[in-house]
Design a protein that fits this description.
With about 350 residues, the protein is mainly beta. The chain has a single domain, classed as 6 Propeller (Neuraminidase). It has three helices and 28 strands. The protein has a five-stranded mixed beta sheet with strand order 1-19-18-17-16, with no helix packed on it. A five-stranded mixed beta sheet has the order 2-25-24-23-22, with no helix packed on it. Strands 3-28-27-26 form a four-stranded antiparallel beta sheet, with no helix packed on it. The radius of gyration is 22 Å and the shape is globular. About 30% of the residues are buried.
């Protein structure tokens, strides 16, 4: 064999093997705990919105419209949209109850101008165009009967991209379902799970994600462990970012008579709570404490950090507030972040923070 004559082919073979390995490579980085020590202290700026004690959650859309998720025991509709400039409610829908067009549970998620309302008990998904609710006085969204089991979903092309409730792995206990992070529905919002997973992990898979089609990114944030994952639009994991505190829950296995259910053991960590983004940056809130069961899991005493990342998961800046932030929304010009938060007196307020 003439080795010299075959050197070009050997070189090409090595390059081919190297490229194959790179296609499966997942970058891993860590956010240093020192980032918290250098955080910019934020001071809340009051908004013109006065809370009524019925609000469960508030999101800000286009700087002036409030997407409000009301508590089930309030005397108002479960979902409303409020115009802060005109100081009036422009849309409200869904009563609490078991009858048609009512909801027994409501989780909401927002992607661009789409509001997803999901009733996991009745198995209904409503896809609401926010702009249409503002322009049309009697806008009525169509409900889709759905068999999807998930904790979080967002519109993805003509379907729904959902958090997989069986995507669970714990290194300490070795409980591992070996399931993908996401499931994708059909165009009529259905999903049939063909795989039988070993553990029932619905109650311990807790997170949320964002999608940026322009950047080609899907970013998943864990709410109970301090890490997040970056995927491309094909749902392929390309990077995992850990930190800054290395907090993890403890779990135990419980035989509920139907399956081996995984549950939390002891106090539950709170990590990446909520997020918002622009085409330039990702903003995500971070707590880094544990729910104290002995204190009735009181969140009001926990401060919050806001981490600013680029779309490759590199930390840009860190901010700090003494209040517990439930969720955030970014202003159109990125100068402010709107925050629905709880102060030390357990009062829920909508405030904003100057980010420059």
């Amino acid at each position: 064999m003439n080795l010299r004559n075959n050197l070009p082919y050997i070189f090409l073979f090595i390059c081919f093997i190297s490229n194959c390995k790179n296609t499966n490579h997942v970058a891993i980085t860590t956010v240093s705990s020192k980032i918290k020590d250098s955080s910019v202290i934020l001071l809340p700026i009051a908004t013109d919105y006065n809370t009524s004690c019925s609000e469960e959650n508030i999101y800000v859309y286009q700087d002036s419209m409030l997407i409000i998720h009301h508590k089930a025991d309030s005397l108002t509709k479960l979902i409303s949209i409020y115009n802060m400039l005109r100081k009036n409610t422009v849309y409200s829908n869904f009563d609490y109850g078991a009858s048609n067009n009512n909801l027994l549970s409501a989780s909401i998620s927002i992607h661009r101008d789409s509001l997803i309302v999901y009733d996991v008990i009745k198995g209904y998904v409503y896809s609401i165009c926010i702009d249409s609710t503002i322009k049309k006085a009697h806008y009525q969204p169509k409900g889709h009967k759905s068999n999807i089991l998930t904790q979080f979903m967002l519109p993805y092309k003509d379907a729904l991209l959902c958090l997989n409730p069986y995507s669970f792995k714990d290194i300490n206990t070795k409980y591992n379902n070996r399931a993908p992070r996401f499931i994708l529905s059909t165009n009529d919002f259905q999903y049939n799970e063909k795989h039988k997973y070993k553990y029932d992990t619905f109650n311990v898979v807790n997170g949320h994600f964002i999608i940026n089609f322009q950047r080609g990114r899907i970013v998943y944030f864990s709410r109970n462990e301090d890490y997040f994952e970056i995927f491309n639009l094909d749902k392929k994991l390309i990077k995992k970012v850990f930190g800054p505190d290395n907090i993890k829950p403890k779990y135990f296995k419980y035989d509920n008579g139907y399956s081996d259910e995984i549950l939390y053991l002891g106090n539950i960590p709170i990590s990446y709570i909520s997020s918002c983004y622009s085409n330039n940056y990702i903003y995500v809130t971070y707590c880094g404490n544990r729910l104290d069961i002995k204190k009735n899991s009181d969140l009001s005493q926990y401060p919050t950090y806001i981490f600013k990342f680029d779309w490759n998961g590199n930390i840009i800046n860190s901010y700090y507030t003494e209040n517990y932030i439930k969720n955030i929304s970014i202003a159109n010009d990125e100068r402010y972040i709107f925050s629905w938060e709880m102060n030390k007196n357990k009062e829920l307020k909508l405030v904003k923070y100057y980010m420059e």
